[in-house]
């Protein structure tokens, strides 16, 4: 079987880069001073019993972040970024993630290292066993596990290029066995490039058996967390591998199969016997150190290089004697792991040969050379390797200080824009918040279409689709359509006994004039049917003269052929967010404004207010930047001011008529202030519309006075797919995590704690 | 209480024409020869036990059509038109409605007149009693019952103009009592204008006590269906009215209250005692004959006049002695009813006074004069009255022949455009069909927004909202959104194991070129991401050379920046309509075409095919007119033809590439031909998408061969809100009443028979 030739087949080439990726990343939790914490796993995170994303490894302080399987590098890293954001923001405020593979200084008394407090007793027992056999300290090392699977079409097309192996399953297993052997042989190169554990912190080593000087990777050397030397397993064939593994367990050299810590693990099922029955599905590379220079411990180029390396391992011939080939790899690995990071490697020549072959492969297979060329330079310039860079930093300020600084930097990054979820930050804020909460609660979250804000959630076999944050299966098809039609909404609400503004639409001045007596004695508003920024709107608040009424009509008819004359409801408008028969947030929106301090000009006050990290532009932040454009300046002029005026201390200067958040308005949460009677009205009105989720706008003269009669409120409109981010991150008042309410609605069985 | 003055108040005037209307109309069922039928009430119509629209009156052959309450004249007549369409199309093909108030020739043996076969035994018993007391023949007379209510705001504003009557309820009752007395006094004018029963047919009269010559209204005279003369009821006050009525019942002059046949009935509840407790809510005018010149027995101007007349009755003073005032009216009524239709009325002078006062009222209240002026001319020109016109027709061909001709004309009208529902014909065809079926089944159907196709249905206290014919509460909010996203749809279907076309989207020629080997050996299609009329699309059906592939790409990239290369599924496309887990229709659409006869040119064949009443334009008919525009002529040219070519007999000439119905394509129902296995696939795929209603498009090479493997079908797309009219009225094959399936889905408790 000439795989090299098979890979060059026309039908194979288009699929060469097809692959699936998954990353697990461990991290120790430390305080902001870089000291290992003693707190429990974050309580705001969903149950570890099923959590697909946020787990603990050996110790209670040792986070294990797990991405879902992704079809490309961008996606797998996006998930890892997002899981990082969620994890960091779910931890106590004084905790962060230690960015190194080597643990921070460990407690003098090993008993103070808490084994992960898992629910299943067998999981705890196993960890206790490990602690006994290997010592707790070694278990505190962290790293990246990199899961890699060749694309389905790639494997199929390769399979069709040959006749030797009859079944696709056997063929796949042969491919992965070759990869595994070659990886074991050549893995020293990965250590050379990405090894990043040159030094230990206090109390990692039990005795004096430790490196004399910095190395490339303590973790990958015999000083790392490795099996006893008597555990030997052959990679000649899957059958042999399996036999050896079983024998090691039978003879008590391993407690169970999973105690075998190969740098590459063959994956395909829960147990090794599953491999025998169904073949290998993918491989797990376990010897990647955390790259502290990236907050998620790995970056795009590293993953891309690993993918190319996996292709190279398929491409390049292997040694005839499998066991010897693997054993040679072990020797090289040990040597390179323990080399000084700044020194040239012993295997320079072999490394150069590998890179040359990789480039040749790239040329033949029409792959990108640049990446390979870049890493090739690291071979001759060891100072470019990660271990070398860590060492350099250590020389400057000490490894612990350096790691603490980096950790703090990543910590700050996670809180900088609390409304953003890294990896998904181009999506709508509501969807980002929903993804955040899903990841936090351990609900599987897959983005099906980024630009369409289409998400699939999963818990067990319960799937839910969500679009735009709150369009779900819990609402009916017709109810949002009903809310979209303002006429029908008013009709339905009025018939159900709710107060809505009474009004009429006119298409001629004459017709509208005739209706004058209907409105003359009450507060009412004249407005063009479609209007922007209040143009053409006139509000009359008491007895209105016919002449004024006609002037109002004329102004409105200038803007539109249809004019609405409608009862004007006196009071303030509030947005009630109703979900599943409950009001979970009430918001007051006020027009863009600044409050004077007697010193700064309006312009300066605006600049200052715009510093708020919650303010951004184009709906990419919960609040919008306040503009000082034509409309704002006009508004100032009407108040006898300019942008250079200096408002008195405490004087609130409004810059807009309209209270839209999109034009710089402030959002103020008042959920706890509103009398319950109005919440009941909101809930009942939404029920009358048949909706589960709605943002309903009520006019209320006094939110503190309980509802008594019809004049105490009016319903302006009901919105389907109501904005949630303004409630989650208000300008003032308490944020309301509405996306969690959405998850509660979709997954009642999870009993999510609010 | 000076009502005349109150009506002139500024605040009253805008509401003067605010009112609510309801019409009941009786009709005898006859065969197309105008003979009374003996068949039962139509079986396709929902149960008479609850049917709000289509009932029977006294006899089994006597339809009673009932409109819902409407806020304006247009709406009430629209409902009556629609109910007519439904009733006519629900009757056996050889039956129609007799357009006259006077029945057609009655059977010699009165026993042959079947009393309505109602479910409730008490209803049958009551009719048997009536037959015994009044004779069956008189019960066979039909008419219009006109229900009228002054607008709520109108009554309120009038109420506020006075202090005498304390409660609104009592005030309202006083208004209606005045109306009733005045109507009883002046009703002769309505008989003069709209009386339309000048002659009887065979066997209406039992003896020789009958008019000697034609009259204005047999029905409204003592020859009509009236109480015995000893039944006298006072209208002095509601209390008095009630007392008298109870006394008449107690003394056995009436069997029960409802046997009192006043020309105006006071309404407000089930029983007269309800009137005492809650006051009068509206009045029912019962002395309007069927106007045979309108197919629904009444027209807009008549109703408008009646509304003005009701205002006039409020406006004009009444006689001091109520009983005398009413008794005078009875005398006048009897006289005018029995006048010869072509002769001047005895009460000409009084009539002129009424019209003069009405015009004065119109001037003062700013109402339209024109309508009043028109009817005023009838007073001096009795030949304009309806009775006179019937008489004129009778002279020409005999009343029976004339009525039969008119009945046949209305019959033809109802079948002319079977897909239209008169009164709602500007709405979408699917919504018209849904309204038709709702009315037929006796489901309350209210159009909330005509242009938005928004309907509210009601059965008992079960309300449902429907938009665009099949957007309902039975589907979830998310599922149509999922179907709207073609990428997500394909993803979900593929993951659920269905075959969807595999493909990729490219944004550069280079990128697309690289994928060549993926497609080279299979059938595939290259298309611009958005495309119209197949421009830029190339289909490759076997092994494809790279050069051809590139040409295809170039063509597609000319049309769009994004190009899709996708597996081409071989076979024919079929639309499966799935509802509630069942395929209820399968449709084949074929491009616009004509079939030659060896004689006619393409142009003539097209003209001929376009005669089909199912063809129309702008989606106002189930099929579209075939055009002979640029594209069609180009298509002919490619086949070496022009519009003047004469295709051979049986030769099918296609005029379009695409099979859209909107460009003249034919729709062919093949529901019964498709193998069940494909229906199962359609049902399962729609279930995977979580939808209750979907139109799913499958490519199937052979619909007769049961599904065996993946190559036997492919799913192209799933449509939410799928078109229904093309299935209901196909070009060929059996129509499928899908709107009835929608009602079955919404109202399972009704167990609608299909």
TrEMBL record, chains A, B:
Subunit structure: Monomer.
Protein name: Glutathione biosynthesis bifunctional protein GshAB
Region spans: Glutamate--cysteine ligase: 1-337
Catalytic activity field: L-cysteine + L-glutamate + ATP = gamma-L-glutamyl-L-cysteine + ADP + phosphate + H(+); gamma-L-glutamyl-L-cysteine + glycine + ATP = glutathione + ADP + phosphate + H(+)
Domain ATP-grasp: 490-747
Domain of life of the source: Bacteria
Cofactor: Mn(2+); Mg(2+)
Catalytic activity, EC: 6.3.2.2, 6.3.2.3
Alphabetical list of NCBIfam families matching this protein: glu_cys_lig_rel, PRK02471.1
């Amino acid at each position: 079987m000439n795989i090299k030739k098979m890979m060059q087949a026309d039908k194979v080439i288009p699929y060469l880069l097809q692959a699936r990726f998954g990353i697990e990343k461990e991290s120790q939790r430390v305080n902001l001073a870089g000291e290992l914490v003693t707190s429990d796993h974050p309580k705001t995170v969903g149950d570890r019993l099923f959590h697909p994303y946020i787990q603990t490894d050996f110790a209670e302080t040792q986070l294990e972040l797990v991405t879902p399987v992704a079809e490309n590098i961008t996606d797998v890293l996006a998930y890892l970024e997002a899981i990082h954001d969620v994890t960091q923001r779910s931890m106590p405020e004084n905790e962060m993630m230690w960015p190194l593979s080597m643990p921070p200084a460990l407690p003098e008394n090993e008993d103070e290292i808490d084994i992960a407090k898992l629910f299943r007793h067998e999981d705890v027992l196993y960890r206790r066993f490990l602690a006994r056999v290997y010592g707790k300290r070694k278990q505190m090392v962290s790293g990246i596990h990199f899961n890699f699977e060749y694309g389905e079409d790639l494997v199929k097309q390769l399979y069709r290029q040959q006749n030797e192996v009859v079944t696709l399953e056997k063929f796949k297993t042969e491919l992965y066995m070759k990869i595994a052997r070659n990886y074991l042989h050549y893995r020293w190169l990965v250590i050379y490039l990405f090894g990043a554990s040159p030094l230990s912190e206090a109390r990692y080593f039990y005795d004096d058996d430790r490196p004399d000087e910095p190395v490339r990777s303590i973790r990958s050397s015999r000083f790392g967390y490795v099996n006893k030397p008597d555990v030997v397993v052959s990679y000649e064939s899957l059958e042999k591998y399996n036999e050896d593994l079983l024998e090691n367990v039978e003879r008590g050299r391993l407690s169970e199969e999973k105690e075998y810590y190969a740098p590459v693990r063959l994956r395909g099922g829960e147990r090794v016997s599953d491999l025998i029955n169904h073949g290998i599905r993918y491989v797990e590379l376990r010897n990647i150190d955390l790259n502290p220079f990236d907050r998620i411990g790995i970056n795009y180029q590293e993953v891309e290089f690993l993918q190319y390396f996996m292709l190279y391992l398929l491409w390049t011939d292997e040694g005839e004697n499998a066991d010897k080939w693997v054993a040679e790899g072990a020797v090289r690995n040990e040597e390179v792991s323990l080399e000084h990071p700044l020194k040239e490697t012993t295997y320079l020549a072999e490394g150069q040969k590998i890179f040359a072959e990789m480039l040749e492969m790239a040329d033949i297979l029409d792959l990108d050379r640049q990446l390979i060329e870049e890493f090739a330079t690291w071979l001759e310039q060891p100072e470019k390797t990660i271990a070398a860079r860590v060492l350099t930093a250590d020389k400057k300020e000490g490894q612990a200080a350096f790691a603490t600084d980096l950790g703090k930097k990543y910590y700050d990054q996670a809180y900088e824009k609390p409304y953003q979820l890294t990896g998904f930050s181009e999506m709508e804020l509501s969807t980002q918040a929903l993804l955040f909460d899903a990841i936090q609660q351990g609900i599987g979250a897959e983005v099906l279409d980024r630009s369409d804000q289409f998400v699939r959630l999963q818990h067990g076999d319960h799937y839910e689709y969500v679009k735009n944050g709150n369009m779900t299966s819990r609402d009916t098809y017709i109810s949002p359509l009903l809310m979209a039609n303002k006429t029908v909404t008013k009709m339905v609400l009025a018939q159900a006994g709710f107060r809505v503004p009474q009004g009429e639409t006119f298409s001629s001045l004459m017709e509208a004039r005739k209706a004058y007596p209907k409105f003359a004695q009450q507060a009412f508003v004249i407005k063009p049917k479609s209007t922007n920024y209040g143009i053409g709107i006139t509000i009359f608040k008491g007895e209105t003269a016919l002449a004024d009424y006609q002037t109002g009509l004329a102004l409105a008819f200038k803007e539109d052929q249809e004019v609405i004359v409608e009862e004007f409801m006196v009071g303030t408008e509030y947005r009630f967010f109703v979900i599943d028969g409950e009001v979970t947030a009430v918001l007051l929106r006020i027009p863009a404004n600044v409050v004077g301090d007697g010193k700064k000009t309006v312009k300066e006050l605006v600049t200052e207010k715009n510093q708020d990290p919650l303010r951004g532009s184009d709906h990419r932040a919960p609040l919008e930047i306040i503009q000082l454009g034509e409309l704002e300046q006009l508004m100032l002029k009407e108040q006898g001011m300019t942008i250079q005026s200096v408002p008195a201390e405490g004087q609130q200067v409004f810059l807009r008529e309209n209270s839209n958040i999109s034009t710089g308005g402030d959002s103020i949460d008042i959920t706890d202030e509103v009398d319950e009677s109005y919440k009941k009205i909101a809930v009942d009105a939404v029920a009358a519309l048949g909706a589960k989720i709605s943002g309903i706008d009520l006019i209320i003269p006094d939110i503190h006075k309980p509802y008594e009669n019809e004049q105490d409120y009016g319903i302006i409109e009901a919105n389907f797919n109501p904005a949630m981010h303004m409630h989650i991150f208000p300008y003032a008042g308490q944020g309301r995590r509405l996306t969690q309410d959405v998850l509660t609605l979709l997954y009642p069985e999870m009993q999510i704690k609010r």
